[in-house]
Amino acid sequence: ESSFEKEWTVKWPCIQPLKNDPEKALCTVCNDTFRVTHQGKRDVERHLTTEHKRLAQMFKVCKPLTSVFAAGTLQNKVINAEVLFTGFILEHNLPLEAAAHAAPLFRKMFPDSAIAKKYGLAVDGSSDTGTESMYLLVVRIFDINRGFGTCLVSDSRAKGIFAQVSDAFKKYNIPWENVIGLSLDNASVNMGRHNGLYTQLEKQNKSTYTAGCSYHVIHNTISYAAKAFAEGTRFNVDDFLIDLFYYFDKSTKRQASHRALKQYPSLKSYFASQSEGVQDPSNFLSDQKLVIGFSTRMTTQKHNLLPTKEAAIVKGCRSFLVAACQYAFSHLPFTNVLLQHAEVLQFENREVADFDSLVYFVERFPTLKAKLDDKMDQLYDQWTAYKLLPDSVVENGRIDKIWSQLGRKKQEDGARKFDFLFKIAKRILVLPHSNAEEERIFSTMRKNKTTFRASLSNKTTLPSILTCKTNCFNQTPCYTFVPSKSLLQNAKSAASTYNSDHS
């Protein structure tokens, strides 16, 4: 194998040795490193005739951070343009390689623009071939969700995932006692009673409230109910709706409408051919009073279905409701004590709310107890003042907005009127009830790592994109986003750091 030769620097001054790595060389023009172990001098010549030219042209327009801000307003505007266009690429999930054509395109589109003449974004390739999975960590704080980070998990068992999450907490110096709520989907690796992830986490903090995703439970509730309806009526609504969708989706509007309407005689024939058989437990409503929908009942009567045939539909509806109730009551946290105490925040029910619910949360969470244990008398005084508030004191709105208003209220001396009460309210309001927000971020990730951007690094590029989209472009369109001065400085600083780390 070859190693770096000093004579190369004499012949090509831009080719320099790389510290502590004689197998690589550094090109100071294009700021790229490459191996010289294969053919030595030939490796250098190959670089200078291929990748060197492309990278040198792109980096030519990228100035050092100090020279950029010393140049004044124009350079700041250029950086602002580069940041905004980067936001455009991120928001719309465009291939990063599009940035390579942006600079020459802008110069051609806006030949009189001084900003376009100096604009330039450099892109680099990625050859990520990792086999690790991303495990997303999202921190929920009062008012908003913030992207916290991602873990790369090679061991998808609960212990392996916990180890990576624990390392992430140590990296950011987050103690486990600060974790008051944990939201997970309902997979056994997460919610298993014996070896699930939540059992590993609760060993670190027993006071943590763990919630499975109620939205998934509701979805499963409907699925089980629909299955019961199909078994009771021999008519699968899911299959019919899917077929109907594809009729509309794959045909013109007129053809789809015609095809769908052609199915109606078959449906009518089906309902007219059902055999008798009605379950009527004593604790159920009678068939006549069972709510199946006014339109449904009127349709069955309009088409002269016999009462015994109509009963088949009612039987299916009854099976649907029974299955839905059974699944929901067995899986949703209707009797959870913490959620029952959480109702103390309902502003409209403040007059009948109990102070004991506040005491429950103070005792439940050690971090809250440490702050309020010797201030319970002041907390009770604030609680009394809160219960006496008139309805007009807050604007109608979501419960988090109401408590945000109460948390900002001040006394005559300028002190917060409900500061202790607000500490409890904030913790209750961030407790999870589903993992819908996290699922949205996973959907965002799937939209970003596509066949056109299949090589995004799981360790650097993709987590950075997700962080930007979650924290900057979640509800703000790229054309209304206003980069702060510190962001513009950090953008160039990050580019310099990246170039230094890869040199």
Automatic annotation (TrEMBL):
Residues 417-461 form the HAT C-terminal dimerisation domain. GO terms for molecular function: protein dimerization activity. It holds the Pfam family Dimer_Tnp_hAT. This is HAT C-terminal dimerisation domain-containing protein. It comes from Latimeria chalumnae (Coelacanth).
